[in-house]
Amino acid sequence: MKTIILLLPFLLISIVSKAQKNNYIGNYEKEIKAITGEIFQYKLEINADSTFTFHYFRNIGQPQSINENSCGKGTWKIIKNIIHFYTDVENDINTKYQLNFTNSKGRFDHKDKKLFRFYHSDIRWIEKLTILKVD
Question: Where is the signal peptide (predicted)?
Answer without folding.
Answer: 1-21
